[in-house]
Records
---
Amino acid sequence: MSPEPWSVPDAPLLPRLALEPTMSREGVFDGAWWPRSDNVLAELPDLITALGAHLGRIVRVGLDISAWNGVPGSVTVNGLAIRINWFTGSDATISVTRGFQDHFLLLVVPPGSLPAMATSAMARASATGNHTPAVELLIG
């Protein structure tokens, strides 16, 4: 089995993350994330660490509680408490806040997705000026 395109041999698994390269905020999505499981406590710390490197300090995450197992009210990442807000009806997105009104929206590709579909959805969601709804991105 060949290594995932998102990982380096003998290194910890990196989040499967694609961000819109210009951060112009002109499209529906600012990027996409393909978690490996629906365990929010296992997945969020690495995502928040990676996003923090690109976007700055993350203070809040919003996600659909029905798409995840064991969603707490907060998670501690690198010694900082990150508040988790939840909503229902949009399991294909996650919002990330780095300030009071500074939100980024990421497409969430379901963990069990086939690699070709996931890679295509992530590329389209992270394209500058994307305006395709999540459901259309995820059906290929």
Note: Residues 23 and 39 are 28 Å apart (CA to CA).
---
Amino acid sequence: MSITSKQRRDARKRREQRARNQAAAGLDAASPIEPHAELRDDDKQLLAGIVRRDGQWVLGMDGRIAGESDSAAHVLALILRAAELHDRAGTNVRLVYSDDLKHAAHAEAAGQGLSFDQFRQQLVAGLQGEPETH
């Protein structure tokens, strides 16, 4: 028996055991996580990000999940707001986001009869406790 065939067999056994363990724990199919946005400072440190997992948009900040939503417009508006706040505080940041996130957010806002900028303004006003305007 060659060394490589033994290594392949052992690797296969480990994969099969891992699959059995995940199935027993109720983790049959690990849900894929799709990255869609990154907010980074000048040192390229990740400040915030958005991923899509199990049909939910997930916003993470400071290494923790800040929230989940069905609303692409909501999470995109929040990360844009975070970028603005960092800029105002004197931290140069760079925000990069996917076309999928952008299109979903704009389509969602349009479905409410708003432009995405109007949606953002309403969200920020709500966060600041101001009355909403239409």
Note: The mean pLDDT is 86.
